Amino acid sequence: MSPIVFSMTVKFFLLAFCLALMLALLFWQHWTQSKRFSEQQRQSELLDGCFYGNPLPTTVTSVESGKFLLVNNVFETEFGWSNSFVAGKTLKEIGLWHEHFKRDEYVQKIKERGWLKMFPMELQNARGQLYYANVNASLFSYQGEAAIISVITDRAVFRQMEESILAKSRRFQVLFENIRQGIARVDRYGYFVECNRMFCEELGYSMEELQRLRPENITPPQWHERDEQIWREETLARGWSDSHEKEQIKKDGTVYPVEVQFYTYADAQGRYDGYWGFVQDISGRKHEEETLHSLAYCDQLTGLPNRILFQDRITHAIGRAQRGSYSIALLYIDLDRFKNINDTLGIQMGNALLKVVAEQLGKLLRSGDSLARMGGDEFSILLEEQVTPQGVSIIAERIVAFFEHPIVVMDQEIYITASIGISLYPEDSDTAEALLSQADLAMFKAKELGRNTWQFFEKSIRQNVSERLQLENSLRHALQRHELDVYYQPQIDIVNDKLVGVEALVRWNHPEFGLLLPDRFIPLAEDMGIITSVGAWVIQEACRQLAQWRAAGFLVPRMVVNLSAQQLERASLVELVARQLEINSLEPGMLELEITESMLMRQSGRIMEVLHSLRDLGVSLAIDDFGTGYSSLGYLKRLPVRHLKVDSSFVRDIGKDSGDEAIIRAIIAMSNSLGLEVVAEGVEHAEQSSFLRAEGCRYAQGFFYAHPTPANTLLSGWKDREQKKEV
Ligand code: C2E
Ligand code: MG
Ligand code: MG
């Protein structure tokens, strides 16, 4: 290649390179310019959108000078200044400034972080009105200048909300502190954090002390497990618990009942953060409940369970016995002739006696047995341990034996006996109601058997008892309906074979059951408390009859009338007797009143008074059924008694039982030495009559001589007898 061609080629390439470079430079310049333009446009569109489209007043101010660079039209309307007015002016210059506005602090904070959230400001609009605002601001460059864009939110809305929240919380605080309920907040670590006054006062702890404690520390250990269960199953599971009763321990150690309810609360993230406990002291309510319970289920006099509670206990005991396949027994105890005590010694004494009996019966029981007062003078015992008929009868015997001794009440000795009925589960029944009624029926049977004894329930008893109830009803009207009658049985001087008196023995002509003997209805009349009117009627009738006989020339020397304890315990008896003697013009010595040994055993002061008044009146007294009781001889000496009636049970065995014969001999000897006359009862055979005569017993009574008969038959029968004797 020639040098000229070579230099031309080099020049050409150099030129082409310069041209390409110039084109590239031109192109790059164009490209960067257009890029800058689109960025500016994008920024300005963004600003337009955020700025002019913003529904809140928005301003752009210079960081350096504090002058307004731009405000949006919402600012213009809300504050009353146009964009052109504010531009280039500071806040102070346009009057937006308020003395509380701390601009330096505002700017400083924005500079530190580049933004600011909810900065509180107090501004003033063109009309001079205060404008409470929260401002969100951000640092940015505006036309090459460091600027702050501020979005102003009217705080009136927030303020209203805040104020109502504050008021609410103040009201809550007042409520929290003064409510008559303990409120405590426990944090998620299980410590008390906040407790109101009531809570602190009830427990006796200060707030500071409580803050070192956990709920377990003020709860008796026996509640921990249950609390834990309620906590897991209710409170945590659904955020709250039902009301529960439990106990709390005060600082001084007192344990008291409370009712509690829990509500959990969560933190900002919705996680469990602790709980509120609402605690109510329920000691007062508990006390009322207990009083109500005790009124409803306890006997107020003795403090024992009453019938309602006891029935419930029996039901539960039956359930246990069923599961354990064992027997239980029910004893129904009724005090004999308790009404007498009330009538004669007064209700106060009666109540005191019931209390002592309740106490003493309790001592006779084993730990598993329970005792209740069923009402009046009735008690019941439930035996649950090793129950066998033999075992139960031993306990029944023990109770009967207990009553054999006098009971000391208010420094006074009282004699009283008890009748007991027994029913057994499962033999007799399997319900509480039926067992009780069967034991009750058996108790009636025990009464019929002469009281002071016990009796197991038998099916036949039911029949007897319904009969008894029927008798009870008709007995109330027997007197008015003239169904009662008096039979008379002669008493004979067996040495001279002479009539010395007649014993008046009451009978009841029952419209349905026919002629009833006193054993069927006298105990009933005593229990029903109507024996005094029955007895008064017998005295009246007997005196009238004696007077009538004597007027008719049948000179019966003496009328003997039986008395009941209740009659003897009434002072009105003396009055009644005196009046009947007077009305019928009878000598007091013509009347003899019979009392039993057991009646004397009561040794009541009143009885002694009445006996002495009767003696003073001139009426003679006899002790009936002698030998069956426990009369002390010394005691007999002090009594104004004339006759001792040897009980028929001794007479019956004359010729058969040398022991009974010995007793009769002893009674006769003792009577002689005390100056008393002996009357032998129940003489049925000539052999008995001869034995008595031989032993020096002068008087006798019995079927051998004459049966008890109505008044008219007695007279005619006696006349016949006298006539036969004469023949
Ligand atoms: P008591 O006073 O011991 O009367 C004697 C009882 O023995 C009478 O029974 C009489 O009928 C019966 N008796 C008489 N002789 C014989 C005999 O040889 N053999 C047998 N086995 N018995 C004989 P009654 O009339 O059934 O009276 C029973 C009891 O009722 C009386 O026993 C008395 O305690 C009481 N009683 C009777 N009338 C009255 C009354 O008006 N008032 C009171 N409170 N009790 C009365
Ligand atoms: Mg008698
Ligand atoms: Mg007798």
Task: Please write out the topology.
Blueprint: H1 3-52, E1 58-62, E2 68-71, H2 73-79, H3 83-86, H4 91-94, H5 103-113, E3 115-124, E4 130-142, E5 145-154, H6 155-178, E6 182-187, E7 192-195, H7 197-203, H8 207-210, H9 224-238, E8 244-249, E9 255-266, E10 272-281, H10 283-297, H11 307-324, E11 328-335, H12 338-345, H13 347-364, E12 370-375, E13 378-383, H14 389-402, E14 407-409, E15 412-414, E16 418-425, H15 432-448, E17 454-456, H16 459-478, E18 484-493, E19 498-510, E20 514-516, H17 518-528, H18 531-551, E21 559-562, H19 565-568, H20 572-583, E22 591-596, H21 597-601, H22 605-617, E23 620-626, H23 633-638, E24 643-646, H24 648-652, H25 658-674, E25 677-680, H26 686-695, E26 699-700, E27 709-710, H27 711-726
Bound molecules: ligand C2E and magnesium ion (MG) (2 copies).
What does this structure look like?
This protein is of the alpha+beta class and 727 residues long. Helices cover 49% and strands 24% of the residues. It contains 27 helices and 27 strands. The strands form five sheets. The chain has an eight-stranded mixed barrel. A five-stranded antiparallel β-sheet has the order 2-1-5-4-3. Helix 15 (432-448) crosses helix 16 (459-478) and helix 20 runs parallel beside helix 22. It starts with a helix and ends with a helix. The mean pLDDT is 86. Ligand C2E is lined by residues 489, 505-506, 517-519, 522, 535, 538, 562-564, 594, 624-625, 648, 681-684, 701-703, 708.
